[in-house]
Amino acid sequence: MSDRPSVLVAAFSARQIAESARLAGIDALALDFFGDSDLAAAALRSEVLHGHYPDGFDADALIVALERLADGMAPVGFVYGAGFEDRPELLAAIGARWPILGTDASTQRRLKYPEAFAALCAEAGVPHPPISRDPPADPANWLSKKIGGAGGSHVVAGDHPPAPDRYYQRFVAGDHVSLAFVAAGERCAFLGFTRQWTAPSTAEPYRYGGAVGPLADPGPRGPAMQAAVAAIHARLPLVGLASADFVLSADGPELLEINARAGATLDVFESAAQPLLALHLAACRGELPERVSGPGAIRAAGLAWADSDINLPAGFAWPDFSRDRTTPPASFAAGQPLCTVVAEAETEEAATALFERRVAELRERFERKAA
Question: Domain named ATP-grasp: which ranges (predicted)?
């Protein structure tokens, strides 16, 4: 038992939120799909929720597991990460038991229902790629996306057959930049920009690879992206940590989506001086600091993916730069995430290059152990 405040946490991968909670002096009662050693070390209590990433949570099993984690505790509420974008009804069910510490279920529904978000962008005057439920006449210029999908693995070419849980979005060429922010009341504070990249496979051509930031200078398009976020926030009650994903087209930034929850770039923006979960919980109380301190360095953080089936033997030593580490012995099927890799340097280019070298080093370690 602990005399510190506690929060319930659930996400596809909950380690980042649990580590931020620990920095903030808060006990995390956390569950996710992986149950890696890092989560066990960061959380006061943790459980693995058996399911299949990225298909989503089993609602009944999730709530039962949260009740087990909360047993004998008095959590102040529930913090969620990726995994709830396509099921606002599950958030509502959790909210009937514990306070939702973040953006509410009805707002998530407006953010993730394609037609509702497109209408919101049009009302706010924010450029957003055209969408359709009908198969496009020129599929080479469109993408097919799962409603409420996360991580990029659900994004495929526009010739994918239509389905009730999918929609089409016009492809826009350009660099992908995300703006992280924290929202409270009518205000929002910007944490910074990151550049994102993909780690494509044959089956998942737009699979998430990683992000680097904070970008030292987002250029003249930075104010336009901040104005777009402010315009959306003025029309929706966003609460706490969030991020807005843009593509920088030839005509200017176009908003792809807003993820109103703790996301993958926590590893980029986390700061012991001002833990992100502390910022998030303060925003839930309607408070924002006058100044948001950054991490003080440029970080690249992303996933190392298994290109083939891998058997991790007992005694395998994970490198210090890895996160979300599975306790060996373990097996990974091709296409599964191996771990998160983090690299820190003085510039965006140096951090990205170090990230790539570390991923290569990790693969070499796997190959030596498997030989």
Answer: 236-285
- Which residues sit opposite 144 in a β-bridge? 156, 168
Verify that 136 and 76 share a domain, yes or no. Answer: no
Mean of all residue pLDDT scores within the chain: 94
pLDDT digits (tens, 9 = 90+) for 307-360: 889 998 898 999 999 999 999 999 999 999 999 999 999 999 999 999 999 999
Question: Would you give the DSSP letter of residue 352?
Answer: H
* Domain end point (choices 83, 101, 119): 101
Find tokens 């004998």 and name the residue.
72
User: How many folded domains does the chain comprise?
Assistant: 3
Residue 97 shares a structural domain with residue 200: no
pLDDT for residue 2 is more than 80: no
What is each CA distance from 215 to 35, 73, 191, 204, 228, in whole angstroms? 32, 40, 11, 27, 18
- The answer to whether residues 166 and 34 belong to one domain is no
Q: Which structural domain range is residue 328 located in?
A: 298-370
Q: In this predicted model, what pLDDT tens digit does every residue of 154-211 receive, in sequence order?
A: 999 999 999 999 999 999 999 999 999 999 999 999 999 999 999 999 999 999 999 9
- Look at residue 38 and give its three-state secondary structure: helix
CA of 79: how far to CAs of 7, 263, 267, in Å? Answer: 7, 12, 17
